């Protein structure tokens, strides 16, 4: 077998190996990115839920304060 043929085959096998490694690496990175994205999404959802809960509590406290103020205003008006 001529030397050029051996070199050519070696070069092509090297290119095929690099391509296969690249495709495997792309898949691995893609799956890792999806996994991290799911984790960040869950963390973000929990943070939003905590914010909503604290906002709901503050809103309820404001409503109670306004209702008490209205009640006091009505009782003061009647007196």
Give a quick set of tags describing it.
1 helix, 0% strand, 79 residues, mainly alpha
Oligomer: single chain
Quick check: average pLDDT?
A: 85
Count of DSSP helices? 1
Q: What letter string, H or E per element, gives the SSE order? A: H
C-alpha geometry? rod-shaped
Range of strand content:
under 5%
Per DSSP E runs of 2 or more residues, the count of β-strands stands at 0
**Which structural class is indicated by helix and strand composition?**
mainly alpha
Distance between the termini: 115 Å
Radius of gyration: 34 Å
Question: What's the helical proportion of residues?
Answer: over 70%
Report the major sheet. Answer: none
Low-confidence stretches: none
Q: Could you characterize what this model shows?
A:
The protein is built from 1 helix and no strands. The protein has 79 residues and is mainly alpha-helical. 0% of the residues are buried.
Secondary structure layout plus pairing:
Elements (H helix, E strand, L loop, with lengths): L2 H76 L1
In short:
By secondary structure, the chain is mainly alpha-helical.
